[in-house]
Design brief:
Helices cover about 40% and strands about 15% of the residues. The chain is α+β, with helices and mostly antiparallel strands. The structure holds guanosine-5'-diphosphate (GDP).
Length: about 140
């Protein structure tokens, strides 16, 4: 499974703006299978843990407050070379730099409120999927 999965989060801003449907549609149309999905609200502590790698950054507090400010949709996506393929679909972190046709170009509000998360390596994808989902919450099509 490792190498074929990635974790996505539809962030609070995009959920608030009713973009869950359109974003999931783009994900499906790009050939990803959704093998686990749920809507949750993270606590500030959970958001801090998820973004621990950014603890020293000036935007850490604002980012973790935003990520715990409302419901999010978390999902495990399956496709060959999922991490790289999904990073292409979401576009650059800063929506001003995201290519046309990418999720962030279409749905992001700002660099912080950039609509979606996508794992940045195969190793982190596994860690992040385990962060949100138990084994029994995952379905495989294989
Ligand atoms: P990603 O892998 O494309 O999500 O980008 P990073 O891992 O570098 O950053 C994690 C998240 O922190 C991004 O998705 C943004 O929500 C937020 N972020 C990144 N850079 C900035 C910044 O310069 N300012 C603010 N306010 N937020 C940022």
């Amino acid at each position: 499974m490792e190498g074929n999965i990635t974790l996505t989060i539809i962030k609070p801003g995009a959920v608030r703006n009713q973009y869950i449907g359109p974003i999931l549609n783009m994900i499906n149309e790009s050939g990803f299978k959704i093998i686990a999905i749920k809507m949750i609200k993270m606590s500030l502590e959970q958001a801090g843990k998820f973004y621990a790698v950014h603890r020293s950054k000036p935007f850490y507090e604002s980012l973790t407050e935003f990520m715990s400010s409302g419901p999010i949709v978390v999902a495990i996506l399956e496709k060959e070379n999922a991490v790289e393929e999904f990073r292409k679909l979401i576009g650059a972190t800063n929506p001003a730099e995201a290519e046309e046709g990418t999720i962030r170009h279409r749905y992001a509000e700002s660099i912080e409120r950039n609509a979606v998360h996508g794992s940045d390596s195969e190793e982190n994808a596994v860690i992040e999927c385990d962060f949100f989902f138990s084994k029994s919450e995952r379905l495989s099509y294989l």
